[in-house]
Each structure stands twice: as C-alpha cells, then as structure tokens.
Amino acid sequence: MKTGRRLLTTTAVAVVCAITVLAAPGAAFAAPTPPPPPAPAPSASADVAPSKDLEAVRKKLDGLYRAAAVATEEYNAAEEKAEQQSTEIARLAKKIAEGRKRLDELKDRAGAAAASQYRGGGLPPEAHLMLSDDPQEFLVGAGRIRQGQHATKGLLSETRRAQEDLEQYAQDAGTQLRKLESGRKAKAKAQRKIEKQIAAAEKIESELEQEEKERLAELERRAAEKAQSAWLDSGVLDGVGAQATEQGRKAVAYATAQIGKPYEWGAEGPKTYDCSGLTSQAWKAGGQGIPRTSQEQWKRLTRVAVAEMRPGDLVIYFKDASHVGMYVGDGAIVHAPRPGRTITIAGAGSMPILGVVRPDPNTGEADNKNESDEGDKSSENGKDGRKTGAN
After folding, report:
1. Could you tell me if 249 and 171 lie in one domain?
2. pLDDT at residue 109 greater than cutoff 80
3. How many CA atoms lie within 13 A of 224 on its CB side?
4. What are the tens digits of pLDDT across the range 240-276?
5. How much is the pTM?
6. Known active-site residue 128
7. Which residues of 173-196 are buried (b: 16+ CB within 10 A; e: fewer)?
8. What family does the entry list (predicted)?
9. Are 95 and 144 members of one domain?
10. Domain presence at residue 359
11. Per 3-state DSSP, what percentage of the chain is helix, strand, and coil (rounded to 5)?
12. In contact, 285 and 341? CB cutoff 8 Å
C-alpha cells in the first residue's frame, strides 16, 4: 500500500510539473504533430531509489560523525591528562626549588663547621681536650664532642636525603615531561582525525541539493523517532519516576539553559560545547565534579539501571561510550549532538544506549525523603508521576 501511494504521488507531481511548463507565459509551440505514446508509469524502484541513496548518505554521515565523536573524546582525554601532568610538573618544580634551597642551607652549615675546625688549628676536638689542664672543662667538652658528632652525622644524613629527594623530584619531573610530550602528540593525532572526519562529512553534505538536505533531515528524524518508539514500547520506563536531587536539578537547569548553543568539539562552554563538555560543566554547576570524557564518566561513575534513573543521571551511548546526554525526565535527554547541530532535547532511546551512570549516588535517599510531600503531588503532573528535571 505504501509503495502504491508513493507511485500515485510521483505520478501526480509529474503531471503538475507538465501542466506548469505548458502554461508558462511565452512558451513556443511547434506545429501539431501526432501525440507521442504515453510515458510508462514510474516504477516503484524509480521512486524508492532516491530514498535508498539518501539512506546510504545518512548512514555514511552518521559513521563519519561517529568517528569524529570517538576522536573528540580521545582529544578530550589527552587534554585532560596534559592538564594533570602540567599541574604535577609545576608541583615537582616547586619541590625541586625548595630542595635546592634546603641543600644550599645544609652545605652552608657544613662549610661553617669546617671553617670552625680550621680556626681551631686543624686539630680535632679530641686533641684539644687531651691538651686541657682543667678536668671539669675536659668533661664538659667531652659531652659537647658527642653532641657535635651526632650533629655532624645528622647534618651529613640530612644532606644526603636532601640530595636524594632532589634527584627523585628531577626524575619524576622528567617522566612527567615525557608523558606530557606523548600526550601532546596523541592530542594532535586526535585533532587530525576529527578534522578529517568532519571535512569528509561536510563535503558530502555540500554536494546535496537543498531538497535532498531536507529529505535527509526527515530521514534522520524518522530514524530517531523509530528508535525512540521501540525503546518506549519495550516498557523500559515503566515505573520510572524518581525525583532529581538538589544537585541533579541544578545540573539539569544548567544543561537545559544551554539549549540552542552550537556543538563544537573539545569545547566546555560557555558559548559552545561538545557532549561530555556539556555534562561535565552541568554537574560542575550542580556542585559535583565528574570526569571530562564520556568514557571516563562511564568507567568511574556509579552505574544504575535504566529503570531506576532519575533526572540528572547521564545516559551513555554506543559500545565505545563515545556519546553522552543528561536525562531530564519523561524519556528525554538534553545533549550536544554533533558538528553542525545545536544543543537540544532528544529521545533518550533515539540512540543505542550503553548504560546509565549517576554522579551523585549518595544523595538520593535523603533528598527524596525530604521531598516526599512534593512527591505526593506528582499525580498533578501525570498518572505515572514522572517529572522532568527542570521542575
């Protein structure tokens, strides 16, 4: 039936186009000739082929942008490590400076002790005591000798430790510098991959006619709707209605306030964001620091079942955890999709879900208990009691 409707639509469009051309002002007409045989009706394949071609384009673009997303998270991870290594190098440099100062002080003390011995005629303290005529002075001096020997040993030990610490700090700093250089190379490599994938995608899109771009956008919308409907029909959200925590509400409020701002790979705001830049900054605004990349968010944050998620939780997508969005309630997420798009609300099931993670796992029970009265009013928002995080 659908093929038949498409056939009729195509035929009707062809007829309308023909009438428009014949009715155009100033059209010249040749001498009457026998009418040509009627053109065969468009076949089903002629109608479907462009859709199939655009579907292939859609999948190609999706693959390119997915590859760019993976490279973006590689870039973000390298950048985060570089920042950590730079901080560590700065800390070690401070330790090295302090160690050198301490070593200089110890050397000055050792030099002062050597000078004192030189001023005493070069004789060791024991010789001076043996030459003393006063027994009391001898006994007092013996105690001082022992103290001096202990002090000298302590000075030498402390000097040795300071020297060893200084050498260790220098070695650690060298290691961090090598890691930093390696990280910079990884970052540059990821950047090249991102730019290559995005350039290839943009080239494909630039070759499309405006009508094709519109049809492509419609195909993308339908694919997302189909995936979301299948996800909802599975009953995965049955019973989901947990309220957001105070931190979760703040995170959702921040994320939704960015709707309409452009996606930009590697960006963390305030004017542009990538997917994990949006979620990490949103939770920072909520008072909770979380990892920068979607992969680290998946690895290090507490995982929860989809059926237990609440607004503010992060939904991680694809097997490689290369995309992330923030759940806002009612089966929806807010996310930064890809280059050329803006931050938007989308169906949480419109992409393949890897899992859900929770940045604030230890605050839910207390917050929900404090809001029990508010929860009793959930029936005003719908029979299933679901609420969006913006509420």
Report:
1. no
2. no
3. 15
4. 777 889 999 999 999 999 999 999 999 999 999 999 9
5. 0.60
6. no
7. beebeebbeebeebbeebbebbee
8. Belongs to the peptidase C40 family.
9. yes
10. yes
11. 65, 10, 30
12. no
The residue range of the domain holding 165 is 74-204
Residue 9 belongs to a domain: no
> Is the pLDDT at 44 greater than 60, yes or no?
no
Q: Terminus-to-terminus CA distance in the chain, angstroms?
A: 44
Q: Which backbone phi and psi does 313 adopt, to 5 degrees?
A: -65, 155
Tokens in use for 9? 């639509």
Most confident residue range from 10-24, 147-161, 364-378 = 147-161
The residue behind tokens 């996310």 is 335
Does the residue 354 lie in any domain? yes
287: left (phi over 0), alpha (psi -120 to 50) or beta: left
- Which of 17, 128, 150, 323 does the annotation list as catalytic? 323
Element holding 323 (H helix, E strand): strand 323-329
- The Cα 194–Cα 264 span in angstroms is 11
- What SS3 state is found at 379? helix
- 335 is annotated as an active-site residue: yes
Nearest in space to 248 (alpha carbons), one of 359, 373, 378, 381:
359
pLDDT in tens, 301-338: 999 999 899 999 999 999 999 999 999 998 999 999 99
What total number of domains does the chain contain? 2
Q: Are residues 249 and 366 in the same domain?
A: yes
Task: Report strand pairing: 323-329 vs 332-335.
Answer: antiparallel
Q: What is the DSSP letter of 239?
A: T
Alpha-carbon dihedral of residues 152, 157, 162, 168, nearest 10 degrees? 160
pLDDT tens profile 270-296 = 999 999 999 999 999 999 999 999 999
At 1, the pLDDT band (50, 70, 90 cuts) reads very low
CB atoms within 10 A of CB 10: 16
Q: Could you confirm whether 17 is annotated as catalytic?
A: no
